[in-house]
Amino acid sequence: MQTTLQPTESELEILQILWDQGPSSVRSINNQLNAYREVGYTTTLKIMQIMTEKGLTSRDTSARSHIYNAAVLESNAKNNLLNRFINNTFKGSASQLVMQVLGHDSTSIEELEKIKAIISNYENR
User: Fold this and answer.
1) Non-local CB neighbours of 99 within 8 Å, separated by 6+ positions
2) Residue 62 half-sphere exposure, CB side, CA atoms within 13 Å?
3) How far apart are CA 55 and CA 44, in angstroms?
4) Half-sphere exposure of 75 (CA within 13 A, CB side)
5) DSSP states of the chain as a string?
6) pTM, 2 dp
7) For the residues 38-62, what does the mean pLDDT come to?
8) Phi and psi, residue 60, nearest 5°
9) Contact residues for 15 (Cβ-Cβ < 8 A; gap 6+)
10) 47 and 109 in contact (C-beta within 8 Å)?
11) How far is 123 from 120, CA to CA, in rounded Å?
12) Taking a C-beta distance cutoff of 8 angstroms, is the pair 14, 48 a contact?
């Protein structure tokens, strides 16, 4: 599986659907996208064809309705995107990212407790 490709926002939306529901037709993906914003079927089809060319998806053409599958692991794609974001935005500093996130008033007590537990887990390894 490819791990170094950087999906566009539209491609990432489609990948998230494929990671959640598994192999799917263009129609199914398009219906999911249309649940929160209007996207034409041919637009979805073209994006998915490009994704296949780029190695982000694979396509099963054995049936009338082609079935697409994610060709990149969710964890690999997220790690690559996060690393790129941290490097470009915070000069590679994960602590600056965490401080920025925690500086928002929207962080709940429950989220802080989960973060503390994760840190504790890492420290106890």
Assistant:
1) none
2) 2
3) 16
4) 0
5) ---S----HHHHHHHHHHHHH-SEEHHHHHHHHHTTS---HHHHHHHHHHHHHHTSEEEE-SSSS-EEEE-S-HHHHHHHHHHHHHHHHHTT-HHHHHHHHHTSTT--HHHHHHHHHHHHHHHT-
6) 0.79
7) 96
8) -100, 115
9) 7, 51, 56, 57, 70, 72, 74, 77
10) no
11) 5
12) yes
CA distances from 81 to 9, 65, 75, 106, 109 (A): 11, 31, 10, 23, 27
Q: How far apart are CA 30 and CA 37, in angstroms?
A: 10
Taking a C-beta distance cutoff of 8 angstroms, is the pair 49, 35 a contact?
no
pLDDT tens, position by position, 64-104: 889 999 999 999 999 999 999 999 999 999 889 888 888 87
Identity of the residue numbered 14: I
pLDDT surpasses 70 at 11: yes
pLDDT band of residue 3 (cuts 50, 70, 90) is very low
